[in-house]
Amino acid sequence: MKKEHDIRIDRSKLHPWLDQKLTVLLKKCEKQGIYLIITEGFRSKEYQDSLYAQGRTKPGKIVTNAKGSTWSSQHMWGIAFDIAINDSKLLYDAATIRKVAVIAKGIGLGWGGDWKSIVDTPHFYLPEWGSTTTRLKALYGTPDKFRKTWKKTVKREKGALLWKASSKKTGTHGRIPKGAVVEVLYSKAWYTKVRYKNKVGYVNKKFVA
Question: In which band, very low, low, confident or very high, does the pLDDT at 65 lie, cut at 50, 70 and 90?
């Protein structure tokens, strides 16, 4: 096994929350001596349609039931990535991928290996919107509209404190100035969890828009 991860995707096209979880997953896998290849991330409509054609109108076996034109792949929404093991002898080894799945589910990721059809063991995703894209389509319509929610701007004149914890008991990472753009992980209760200059924390959601 090669003792390094091999990232073959553009991580900037992943939802910030998924990208953050990917960082954690890579670190936790490395501690267990598992090194990953990240083989798939965001997919365009054209690429998704080409995958859908495989095993239907193009040679190969069927690998997806999602047409690009229906926005039905989680990859098209930036909320999923696929993996292999960075070892030519264990590339898609079921036992090793199951170990990765245990780690991934422990940090809040969903796993395609739990699906009934198509079972997709290399596939991991943000489960916030369910195991399909139905809710995303109902909420946002298209991936482009969804992507616009991934960033917000600090509007408060004084800026916004970036708290280390939602309890506000462990201090802050400092103050984010007015006009700064933050990456949105999610919103809940009084806060929006954000990433700013590679620091993750909590800001008052009233101060960003």
Answer: confident
